[in-house]
Queue: 2 jobs
Job 1
Amino acid sequence: MNATQILNALERERTLLREFRSLSEQQLQLLETENMEAVNQLLDQRGDLMLELTAVEATLGTWIDQIRMDPSISNAVLGELRSINDDIVQLANQVVEIDEQSHWRIDLIKARAGSELQTLNKGSRALKGYERGYGIGPSMQYMS
């Protein structure tokens, strides 16, 4: 483990988070058009990115703990590590904000779909009542 390896890993994490943010933005746009099939495909891609992000983060956690105790690491290198880490935190916060908007949009879609289903169900019951009340349709009284 050396500072260059850590910088490269942080750069990789930042790149992955940028890709993740981009997918999150695309997902939000697809939710606006309610293209759920495409949203599911993006969720699969996000899942793959999340696996890689988790692996990079686990490795970095170990390395960063080690480098903090290493007196040979210069303040300039530590400053660069902090700068990249700040970018990573900012990207992660952006993803959270976008995902909150996506969850809000999904809740709206669910509520509207539930309302539409209730309306359809009420309409179906109204037709059955109409058929009974006006003798439309076959009568089952004489079938026995």
Job 2
Amino acid sequence: MTDAASYRAMLRLRIYRVLVGSLGVAFLLFGLVLIGTFFGYQRPGAVPMIPTGPIGHYFVAFTGCALLGWAGGLIGAARDPLASRTVGTFTVFVLALMAMIRMVAWLIGDYAGWLGDLPRTEATLFLFIALALVWTKPTVAESVRAESVRAKSAMEKSGGEG
């Protein structure tokens, strides 16, 4: 690999790590907000922040917990992206699915009175993030090469021969 190609690969990997790490932190914070919304709704005389009943707030809290788990995976992928390619791939799939659901909600029109064009704007944002992840995600060859370097390094540290 030439120095220019190596530099481009390193830059792409750095951008991927920043993107995945930022998404992880954002999902962590949003998950905590959703869990806080659930507990805020449980206070006596509380005015709900989200216009839904107790069952809706239960699902809001459940979504917040799921976002915390997803955030952990994304932050782990930011720390070691070559060993965590599946997290990026799955995130791309889910962001595209979320965009599709928002576009269906926008087309149906039942949410237009409350949300306006927000679902369409969110769908665009999710698709741009998914595209950025696809463009910057480590390749299989990079992951295999990194794993062989790790194995060789571990073998040398243990004093074994390979």
